[in-house]
């Protein structure tokens, strides 16, 4: 049996002291610094070893046996020195990392990306945002027409093995109009093994998962047809999950209600990633070198990335202390106010496409993902639970959807976005259907949109709304109807507000 490895024993005391500015201070703080040092080294081993072993792009070190040739303290010194280097995107104060999950080579359609999450990091504010992109989203591809986004990795791997991660990154960069600085790709087997090695994760299941059509891996062609699926049931509440159950929780697509939507699925995937992060940062895990090495050994064949060692460590150092409240979780979806709509293409396949016909709306949302309203103002609106319907009273394309994205940041629930039969509005108007019962919210909405206020609906609008609601199964009345005029400036309705 292999001998237990204690990483700290491999570090000579005099070598560690070279990093201390004051030896006397080191003696007073030794227990605290020792724990911190161990945490750094542990996380470095988990991430760096795994990514390096999976052909991560580490240009400074070209040997696959570098761990045997360089003393650990030498590597730690190298990592400390990397603080002077700049990460991609750091000078723009936004680092974009694409997280990809796929079945793997032993699964049918194993190179189709089942999970696509754009993680954006803002160094100056220590904030993060995660945007889930549904696998059925269809995007334009050069020389290929419109293709499902989850096919890109498979196409690239067929032509040039190992190129899938970069191909997906470039495609998403093109449609979202942002640089994708890094990517990390993992297959399902690696995902399951990591969670199992962690001893499972605890996840607060917000809504019961009751999926009668969850696909059984390895049974894709089985007969009878029913044997290809299983009944997945996960009860609402705090649940401890092993790797297999966590994967099923993240992948389930057919449970009733919101959890069966792309939004619900994307949110569950983000919750699982958060649970893994918390478990990896726990004291119990950081002080178990054997477990760390086991994860490295198990996972090395299941990862690929384009990160260098120093980039991994600097990213970790920058964002290890990001609070959960500073992580924004969003998802592209086809809900009533979502930026995608579903349809069946000419081949009979289910696809999702931008509701506006192009990616302008989505690009706007992505570019402003870190723009948020002051907390004190947002709390006022949330306390009144105010809802808004936004209509475009001009000929300016996309005006209503952009304004809706902006006012949502102030806590308003935008229940409907659309056009208007009249498109001659010079100035925006707010129709208050609460007749003054939610004055605080009305004040915020008026200030942010520079609109006039009316406490009654004109007859033409009453007729228009009545006709529209007749086609809705469960119509909901908003508190306010905002009709945008020529004076509307959606790019200024909150996105540049820096109040604290």
- Read across the widest sheet, the strand sequence of neighbours is 11-6-1-2-3-12
In the CATH scheme, the class of the largest domain would be: Alpha Beta
Number of domains: 2
CATH architecture title of the largest domain: 3-Layer(aba) Sandwich
Number of helices: 18
- What percent of residues are in strands? 15-25%
Brief sketch in words of this structure:
The chain is of the alpha/beta class and 500 residues long.
Outline the fold blueprint:
Blueprint: H1 13-17, H2 23-28, H3 30-53, H4 66-69, H5 72-81, E1 95-102, E2 113-122, E3 127-132, E4 138-141, E5 145-148, H6 152-159, H7 164-176, E6 182-187, H8 188-197, E7 201-205, E8 209-215, E9 229-234, E10 237-241, H9 243-251, H10 262-280, H11 283-286, H12 289-299, E11 303-305, H13 309-319, E12 327-331, E13 340-344, E14 350-354, H14 360-367, H15 375-384, E15 387-392, H16 399-408, E16 413-419, E17 429-432, H17 439-449, E18 452-454, H18 459-469, E19 480-484
Parallel strand pairs: 1-6, 3-12, 15-16, 15-19, 17-18
Antiparallel strand pairs: 1-2, 2-3, 4-5, 6-11, 7-10, 8-9, 13-14, 17-19
Helix pairs in contact: 3-12, 3-13, 6-7, 8-9, 8-12, 9-10
């Amino acid at each position: 049996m292999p001998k237990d490895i204690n990483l700290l024993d491999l570090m000579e005391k005099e070598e560690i002291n070279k990093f201390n500015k004051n030896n006397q201070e080191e003696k007073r703080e030794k227990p605290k610094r020792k724990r911190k040092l161990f945490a750094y080294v542990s996380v470095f081993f988990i991430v760096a070893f795994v990514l390096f072993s999976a052909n991560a792009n580490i240009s400074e070190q070209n040997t696959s046996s570098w761990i045997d040739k360089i003393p650990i303290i030498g590597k730690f010194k190298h990592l400390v020195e990397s603080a002077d280097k700049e990460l991609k995107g750091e000078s723009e104060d936004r680092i974009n990392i694409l997280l990809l999950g796929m079945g793997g080579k032993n699964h049918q359609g194993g190179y189709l990306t089942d999970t696509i999450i754009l993680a954006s990091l803002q160094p100056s504010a220590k904030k993060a945002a995660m945007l889930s992109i549904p696998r059925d989203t269809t995007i334009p591809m050069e020389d290929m027409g419109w293709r499902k986004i989850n096919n890109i990795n498979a196409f690239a791997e067929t032509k040039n093995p190992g190129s899938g991660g970069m191909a997906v990154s470039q495609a998403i960069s093109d449609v979202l109009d942002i640089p994708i600085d890094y990517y990390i790709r993992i297959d399902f087997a690696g995902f399951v093994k990591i969670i199992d090695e962690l001893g499972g994760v605890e996840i607060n299941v917000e809504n019961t998962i009751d999926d009668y059509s969850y696909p059984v891996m390895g049974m894709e062609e089985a007969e009878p047809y029913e044997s290809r699926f299983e009944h997945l049931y996960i009860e609402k509440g705090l649940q401890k999950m092993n790797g297999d159950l966590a994967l099923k929780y993240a992948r389930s697509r057919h449970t009733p209600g919101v959890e069966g939507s792309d939004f619900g699925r994307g949110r569950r995937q983000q919750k699982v990633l958060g649970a893994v992060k918390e478990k990896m940062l726990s004291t119990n895990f950081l002080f178990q070198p054997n477990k760390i090495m086991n994860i490295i050994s198990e996972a090395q064949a299941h990862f690929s990335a384009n990160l260098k060692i120093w980039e991994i460590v600097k990213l970790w150092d920058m964002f290890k202390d990001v609070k959960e409240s500073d992580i924004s979780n969003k998802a592209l979806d086809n809900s009533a106010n979502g930026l995608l709509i579903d349809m069946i293409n000419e081949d009979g396949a289910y696809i999702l496409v931008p509701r506006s016909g192009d990616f302008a709306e989505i690009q706007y949302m992505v570019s402003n993902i870190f723009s948020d309203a002051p907390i004190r103002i947002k709390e006022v609106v949330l306390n009144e639970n105010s809802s808004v319907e936004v209509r475009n009273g001009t000929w300016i394309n996309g005006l209503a959807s952009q304004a809706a994205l902006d006012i949502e940041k102030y806590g308003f629930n935008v229940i409907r976005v659309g056009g208007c039969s009249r498109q001659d509005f010079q100035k925006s108007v707010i129709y208050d259907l609460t007749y003054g019962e939610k004055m605080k919210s009305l004040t915020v909405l008026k200030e942010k949109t520079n609109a006039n206020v009316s406490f009654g609906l004109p007859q033409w609008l009453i007729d228009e709304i009545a006709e529209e609601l007749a086609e809705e199964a469960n119509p909901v009345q908003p508190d306010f109807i905002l009709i945008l005029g020529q004076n509307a400036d959606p790019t200024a309705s909150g996105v540049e507000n820096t109040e604290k």
